[in-house]
Specification:
32 helices, 62% helix, elongated
Length: 666
Amino acid sequence: MAASCSQALRHHACKSSRLLRIHLQKSWHNRSFATEQQPAVSSLEEIVIPKKKTWSKEAVLQALASTVNKDPTASDYRFQDDPYLTPKTSLDFKLFSLSLESGSNAAKYFISKYPNYFQKDYAHPHIPCLMPESLEAQIEEASEAALAERIRLRKVRAAVDLYDQLLQAGTSVSLDVTNELLDLICFYGDRDPAQENVPEQRSEETPQEDVQDDPQTKKGRGPRDIVKATWKEDNNAERVFALLAEPNTHSYSALIRGMVKYGAYPRAFSTYTELLNQRLTADVHIFNALIAAAPEVQEKYNEKWELIADLLKQMAEQKVKPNLLTFNAVLKALRRCGALGKSQAFPVLSEMKALSIEPSLASYSHVLSIFYKTGAPVQGQKDILQEVLYEVSGKSFTPQDPDDAQFFITAMRICLDTKDMEQAYRLHELLAVAENWRLLGDDLKQNIFYARFFSLLCLMEHIDVVLKWYRDLVPSVFYPSSNAIADLLRALDTDSRLDLIPHIWTDIKKLGHGSRQKLVEELLALMAREKHSQEVQEAFADCALDIKRMYNTGDRGKVTMSWTASSLSDLISILLAAHRLQDAWDTLKLFKTHNRVPSVELLGRFLACVKDRGDVDRALELVQVSAGFCLPDTHTLIRTLRQDFQLSEQHKSILSDLETQTFNSG
C-alpha cells in the first residue's frame, strides 16, 4: 500500500513537472513571438548578467580609503612615517618638505644612474613611475631612430647636434621627426632642461651669503629661476625651421608657441603672417598663443581687445574650432583691458556655453580677477562672487589649465576683501567635493588659502566658532603665521575671552613664534590691560614669567628679543595683579639693566601693592629707584610715602635726602 502511494506521488510530480515545462516553453514562445511583432526594445532596458565581476586592482585600497576621515590633530600624511620628525612649526614644515623632495630626487638619480640594480618589481599593482627609466641613449649610430630617441629623452643639445650630423652626411630627416625636434627646442628655449633627479650641488661662484640674502631664494625659488630665459635671434629653433623645405602648420605652431613662451611677441605675429602668406591654415594652439600675446603688443585697452577679436574672427574664417584654453586665454587677456574687460567677460562665457565648452576653474578665476582688482573698492560687485560660487558649488573639477590652481586663493582673497563669510564657507565646502582639494595647489598656495580663511573667521565669527576651526585646521593643514596668531588674539579681545591667552601662548611656542617680539608685546599688553579673577591672573603671571625667560635666554640660547619700556611695564603690571611682588621686584631691576626708564604710574601701582603689605623698606627702595631715574614726579611718591606709611627717623632722613636730590636735579 505504501509503495503504491509513493509510486503515485512520483508519477504525479513527474506529470506536474512536464506540465510546468510545457507552460514555460509556451510562454517563452509567446514572448519571443510578441517581440518579433513589436519594435525592438532599447539596449538600455536589456539586463546583461556578467559571468563574473571584474574588480580593479585599486578597489580594495579605494574602499579602505573611503572609510577614513581626516584627523585634525594629525600632521600631513607625508610626515606620518616617522612621528619624531613631525614638523611643529611652519619653518620645520618647509624644511622637511624640501628634505623629502631632495631625498626623492636623490633616489630617482640612483635609480636612473644604475637601473641594473633595480630590476625586481615587488609592487602590486604595478606602478610604472616607480620603476627605473633609462635616461641614457641606447642607439649610438647616427640615424633618424637615434634622433627620435634623444628627443624622447629630452636631450636638446644632443638632439640638435645629431640633427646637424645627419644633414651633413646627406641623410634626410622626415618632417614628423623634425617637427618633434622643433617642439623640444621651442618648449625648453633652446637649452637642456634642468634635471630634477640630479643631486643639488652648490656652485663655487655663488657664496653662501649671497644665496641667503637673495630675496628670490628666500621665497623658495632656486637660483636658476632668478634669470628668466628669453628668445634669442637666430637660435637653433629658427635655424632648424629655416632648413625645412616645406614647413607645415605643426612647424609654424611649434615656432610661434616658443616665441610667445619666451617673450618674442612681435616675432610671433610676424611668423603667423608668414604662415598665412604660405597659404596654410593655423591650428588652435597657434591662436591660443597669439591671444595670450595680444596684450603685450598693444598698449591701449581698446586696441588689445580689437586684436583679440580679430584673431577670433580669423579662427572662424579658417574654420578652427576653439577649445577651453582658447577662451581661458581670452579671459586672461581681458584682465589687462581695464573696464573693457568687465563688459566682455560674460559674453565670452556665454559663447563658451553656446559651444558646449564647460568652463574650468581657471575660467572662473580669470572672471573674478577681472571684476575684483587687488586694493580696488568692491562696492556693487559682491553679486559676481556669489554667481561664480553658485555655478561651481557641488561640482567636481579636474585639472585642465595650469591656472586652475589660482582659483581657490583668488576667490578666498575676494571673500576676505568683501568680508563675505557665507561665500567663504561655500568655497571651503567645494574643496571637499570629490578630489577638488588637489586643485588647491602646492603647499604655499594651501597655506595662503587657509591663512585668508582663518583671518576672515577671526574678523566675522564668534570666538567659539573661531576656536573650533582653529582646532580643525592647526596643524593638520595649516601652520599659522604670526599675523594669523595676532588676528586670533584680537578675536579673543573682541569677545572678552582673554582668559584663553595662556593656552594660545603654548601654541605660539610650539609654532615657533615665541621670538616674534611684536606678537609677544601685543600679548603682554592684552594681559596687562584689565583685571581678571585671581585664577586667571595666576595663569597670566605664569605666562608672563615664561615670556621673561624666553627674553633672557632666547631660543636655543640665542637672545633674539630686546626689552622695551612698555613690555617691561606690562610684565610688572601682570605680576602685581597676581600679587607676585618678588617676581615684580626682580623684573623692575631690568629697567636699569637694559637702560629703560619706568613710568611714574607703574611705580605708583607698585607702591600701592607694597602699601597693602606695609613693607616700608620696599616702598623706600621704590622711591630711590624713581630718584635714580630722575623722574619728575618723584616728589609725589615721597609725599605718598610720608602720608601712608609709618616711618622711622632713619626713613625720614633718607626721604629728606631724596627730596633734596630731586629738587636739585629738577
